[in-house]
Amino acid sequence: MTPQILLIGHGAIAAEVRHHAAQSGLYGIGAVLVRPERQAMVQRELDPVPVLGSLQQLGFQPALAAECASHSAVRAHGPALLRKGIDLVVASIGALADDALYRDLKAAAREGRAQLILPAGAVPGIDALNAAMIGGLEQASYTSRKPPSAWRGTPAEQVVRLDDLRKPTVHYTGSARAAARDYPKNANVAATVALAGLGFDRTEVRMIADPTVTENIHEISASGAFGTMHLTVRGKPLASNPKTSSLAAYSVIRAILNRIAPLVI
Ligand SMILES: NC(=O)c1ccc[n+]([C@@H]2O[C@H](COP(=O)([O-])OP(=O)(O)OC[C@H]3O[C@@H](n4cnc5c(N)ncnc54)[C@H](O)[C@@H]3O)[C@@H](O)[C@H]2O)c1
């Protein structure tokens, strides 16, 4: 039988997952969980896929759940799903900068004998960075460079006049922890680099609003016993959400495939 997943959220990444499920036929969307106030509206759009307004309405044991929603969704549903023994792929990785939630998720996964799965998201090299930790990592930094429009609705608006920028401007330098807290929709990569490597407090982050680029550019540098690495990806944003790189959506899909495929890479 085709594995059925629970999808949390109804935005840009979730749409890519639904599209891939329909196109590939490798897994199905057993249900979509949205905020209660959006349930009726999303149900009309996604019919006949069941749309839930709360986890209590879940009427089957999904092969896994994929969160593509927000920090609040990780907090609201993550521990409960893991305690029910349901593996959970989390896109909103910045939520894990909250130590209490991070501990709760890990405890819930242990209790439910489930796995919390963090996809690499919009960047390459997360596997290498994490492997490098085994030999000892000395330094890790992450720079996010996006067009000014991608920083709308973030604290960058208090630091620079996004509409008037003529040259690349750094609007944040600091730890991955503060980045994840203050830029919840933009600092998922910072959080992923932190979790794979030196942690939220020792991972250095820079964020740049750059009117000369149209892509979301991610740069990772690290050094340690393994040697050094400098990686850059010029990611094309999803048309439906300029804050989100298309690679981030593909990486959630890859994490789903890796749970159901006979070969994992
Ligand atoms: N890991 C990465 O590299 C990476 C990259 C880009 C985005 N993200 C994160 O992935 C998540 C989804 O991104 P997107 O581009 O699809 O965002 P989006 O804004 O297009 O869609 C988010 C959807 O989730 C819904 N939602 C929010 N809170 C919810 C809740 N508590 N319960 C149910 N639904 C809820 C919203 O209504 C919206 O439909 C975001 O948190 C984003 O920050 C991660």
CATH class of the largest domain: Alpha Beta
Unreliable spans: none
Mean pLDDT over all positions: 96
Estimate what percentage of residues fall within beta strands: 25-35%
Major sheet: size, sense and barrel closure?
6 strands, parallel
* Total number of helices: 9
Strand order of the largest sheet: 3-2-1-4-5-6
CATH topology of the largest domain: Dihydrodipicolinate Reductase, domain 2
Helix content: 25-40%
User: What ligands are attached or bound here?
Assistant: nicotinamide-adenine-dinucleotide
Using the 3D structure, state the CATH architecture of the largest domain. 2-Layer Sandwich
Distance between the termini: 23 Å
3D architecture notes:
With 265 residues, the chain is an alpha/beta fold. Helices cover 35% and strands 26% of the residues. The chain has helices spanning 12-24, 39-46, 71-83, 99-112, 126-135, 156-159, 176-182, 188-196, 246-260; strands at 4-8, 28-33, 51-52, 64-67, 88-90, 116-117, 137-146, 169-175, 204-209, 216-224, 227-235, 237-238, 241-245. α4 (99-112) links the parallel β5 and β6. The protein is globular. Nicotinamide-adenine-dinucleotide binds at residues 8-14, 33-35, 68-70, 72-73, 76, 91-93, 121-122, 185, 188-189, 192, 241, 244, 248.
